[in-house]
Structures are given as structure tokens and as C-alpha cells.
């Protein structure tokens, strides 16, 4: 579909700077802009590209003031990135919606399936399972027994949801994610590790998105809980009996050990590791590759492994490259000190000898 700058500005409640009749039919990155596409400028470091981009329309923030003429038509909005997301959502909604049950899909006779559902080839729906309305379940998805899946959910190819788990409304689970596998629970008896049955489940509340190949383990007893609005990247591991608070986001390769609680509105960077049985206070910011081994307070900003306050980490990082030189200087100072002590000792000995001679 083709849209004019005026139509886009009206939808976004923005202001057109340039040709209101400029048209676009697709999107492009600002540094790779193409004719008849729309792009955006959100990060100031990409500003130089706006003067040369071949894109015909650029979304910019209201406070953007160009240093020189811009060929493209600009649309000023409150938040260019958020505006782009709104436009992309609008375009996504125009795509045809898959619907219908494939002949080679399996639905248990005791399962309940809602209206307007898509069930792809070789998908499996277990006994006593309930699937809500308007769900899209792609090929080779496994949904075990006694599972509840809410309305408007998307389960991409290869998703596995084990028995007794609960998925809320408006959830998106990407390819290869596993929900409800056994937690890592073993009891050591002499030289043998004996498995502890994991008899709990996983509860995922509404509006949660889970990235590809992410795993969320079922609880030993009770529930592993992912609260409303959580967004998880790819390749994340959440262990048994964890609880992730509302609107928390995690980047790829985060690992969370068992029985840890992440409170609401936290941000975890890539490859963060969090030990078990601790609490991350709400509104915490955990920098990439941080290692957390103890509780953090509300609003903490930490970095490093073990993690320390961000300002302390940056102060320390300035010192890190200087440590070899500091070590050499320290060794030299220790040698000088030892030599000085030796000389002082020799002087004291000479003084003692002189005193003894005088006394004689």
C-alpha cells in the first residue's frame, strides 16, 4: 500500500516539513534509504545520514533542527522511534491472517479450541487443553496436556509448551522456545544425584513476548511466573520457581538461577548472570555481562562481575589498563624500601659499634 506524508502525519498527529504529497510504500534504514520508502532518525549519531538519505520521508523528533537543507520530507513527532513502531504495526495489521486447521494437525478430542484459529501442519494439542480465540499456532508446535492458552496468542514453529502451563492473552512465543521443561533439581546422596520431581508449572501472564530458543523451567512446586508485559529476547534461561515482575525486559543470553525474583520495570542487558534465591529490586538497570550474587536495591544501576555500582565500575575501568604499570612500580618501590631498610639497619649497626668503642 502507498501512503502520503499528509496521511502519515495525520495518523501520527505529526507536522509535515516539506512535500505533503510525497509517497512511500515501504521502510528502510536511514543509512540505506531508498526512494519511495520511509525511515526515521532517533539516535543523534545517525544525524549525518539524514542529509544524504534517498528515502522520501523521514520521521524526526520535534526538537530536531537540521544544520543544512534536507531533501526528504520530514514529519516531526514526539518520539520518532515510537511513531515508526506505530506505523509498522499498522502495516502488519493489513497482512492476511492465517486461519484454519491443517488436516495433519492433531487436536485431542478432549481439547477445546476457540474461534478463528490457525493450526499449522503437525501441530499437536494435548488432552484437556484449552486454546483461546484468534490464536495462530504454527507448524510443529507442541502444546501438552492441561495447558491453557489465552486469546490472540501466536506460537511460532517449534514452540514446546509442557503440561499444566498457563499462557495469558496477547502473548507471542517465538520459534524453538520451551515453556515448562523440568527445573534443574537434584539431591546428592553419597556419590549419586537423584532427580527431584518438578511438579509445579509455568504461568505466563498477558502481553508477554518470549524470544526464540528461550527456556522457562517449571517450578519444583508452585509456579514459575512471568508477569504481565515482560519482554524476553532470544536464548534466555529462566530457572525453576523464578518470578519476573511486570514490564521487565531482558536482552539475549541472560541466565537466571532458581528461586530468584526480578521485580517490576527492570532492564537486564545481554549475558547478565543472576545467582539463585536473590531479589532484584524494581526499576533496576543491570549492565551487559554483569554477575549478580546478592540482592539489589530498588533503582540500582550496576555493572561488572561481581556487579558493583555503575559509577564505581567506570572509575575502576579507568584504572584497569594501568594495573600492570602500577604493579611494576609497586615492586620497584618495595625493592627501594627494602634497600632503605637494609641501609638503615647497617647505619644503626655502625652507630652501635661506635658507641661501644667510645664506651671502652
Explain what the structure shows.
This protein is 19% helix and 28% strand. It is α/β, with parallel strands linked by helices and 360 residues long. The protein has a twelve-stranded mixed sheet. Strands 9-12-15-18-21-26-29-32-35-38 form a ten-stranded parallel sheet, with no helix packed on it.
> Helical stretch count?
4
Share of helical residues: 10-25%
Find the structural class using helix and strand composition.
alpha/beta
Output the CATH topology of the largest domain: UDP N-Acetylglucosamine Acyltransferase, domain 1
Strand order within the widest beta sheet: 8-11-14-17-20-25-28-31-34-37-39-40
The CATH superfamily of the largest domain turns out to be Hexapeptide repeat proteins
Overall 3D geometry? flat
Radius of gyration, in angstroms, nearest whole number: 31 Å
The amount of beta strand, in percent, is 25-35%
CATH class membership of the largest domain? Mainly Beta
On the 0 to 100 scale, the average pLDDT is: 94
CATH architecture grouping of the largest domain: 3 Solenoid
Name the poorly predicted regions. none
Strand count: 40
Q: What is the rounded distance between the termini?
A: 114 Å
Largest sheet: 12 strands, mixed
The number of domains is: 3
Amino acid at each position: 500500500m502507498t501512503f502520503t506524508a499528509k496521511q502519515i502525519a495525520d495518523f501520527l498527529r505529526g507536522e509535515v516539513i516539506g512535500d505533503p504529497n510525497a509517497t512511500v510504500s515501504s521502510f528502510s534504514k536511514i543509512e540505506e534509504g531508498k526512494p519511495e520508502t520511509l525511515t526515521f532518525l532517533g539516535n543523534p549519531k545517525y544525524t549525518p545520514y539524514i542529509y544524504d538519505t534517498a528515502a522520501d520521508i523521514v520521521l524526526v523528533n520535534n526538537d530536531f533542527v537540521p544544520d543544512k537543507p534536507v531533501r526528504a520530507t520530514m514529519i516531526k513527532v514526539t518520539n520518532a522511534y515510537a511513531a515508526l513502531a506505530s506505523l509498522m504495526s499498522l502495516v502488519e495489521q493489513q497482512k492476511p491472517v492465517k486461519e484454519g486447521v491443517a488436516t495433519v494437525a492433531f487436536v485431542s478430542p478432549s481439547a477445546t479450541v476457540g474461534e478463528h484459529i490457525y493450526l499449522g501442519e503437525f501441530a499437536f494439542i494435548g488432552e484437556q487443553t484449552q486454546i483461546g480465540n484468534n490464536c495462530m499456532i504454527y507448524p510443529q508446535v507442541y502444546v501438552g496436556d492441561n495447558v491453557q492458552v489465552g486469546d490472540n496468542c501466536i506460537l511460532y514453529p517449534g514452540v514446546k509448551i509442557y503440561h499444566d502451563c498457563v499462557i495469558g492473552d496477547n502473548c507471542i512465543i517465538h520459534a524453538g522456545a520451551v515453556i515448562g521443561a523440568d527445573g534443574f533439581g537434584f539431591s546428592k546422596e553419597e556419590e549419586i544425584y537423584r532427580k527431584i520431581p518438578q511438579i509445579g508449572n509455568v504461568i505466563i501472564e498477558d502481553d508477554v513476548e518470549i524470544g526464540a530458543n528461550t527456556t522457562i523451567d517449571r517450578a519444583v512446586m508452585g509456579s514459575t511466573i512471568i508477569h504481565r508485559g515482560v519482554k524476553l529476547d532470544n536464548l534466555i534461561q529462566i530457572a525453576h520457581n523464578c518470578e519476573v515482575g511486570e514490564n521487565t525486559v531482558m536482552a539475549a543470553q541472560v541466565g537466571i538461577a532458581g528461586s530468584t525474583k526480578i521485580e517490576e520495570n527492570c532492564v537486564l542487558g545481554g549475558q547478565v548472570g543472576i545467582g539463585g534465591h536473590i531479589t532484584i529490586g524494581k526499576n533496576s538497570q543491570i549492565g551487559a555481562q554483569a554477575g549478580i550474587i546478592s540482592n539489589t536495591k530498588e533503582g540500582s544501576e550496576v555493572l561488572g562481575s561481581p556487579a558493583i555500582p555503575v559509577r564505581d565500575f567506570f572509575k575502576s575501568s579507568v584504572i584497569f589498563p594501568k594495573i600492570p604499570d602500577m604493579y611494576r612500580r609497586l615492586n620497584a618501590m618495595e625493592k627501594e624500601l627494602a634497600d632503605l631498610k637494609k641501609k638503615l639497619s647497617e647505619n644503626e649497626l655502625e652507630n652501635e659499634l661506635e658507641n661501644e668503642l667510645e664506651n671502652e
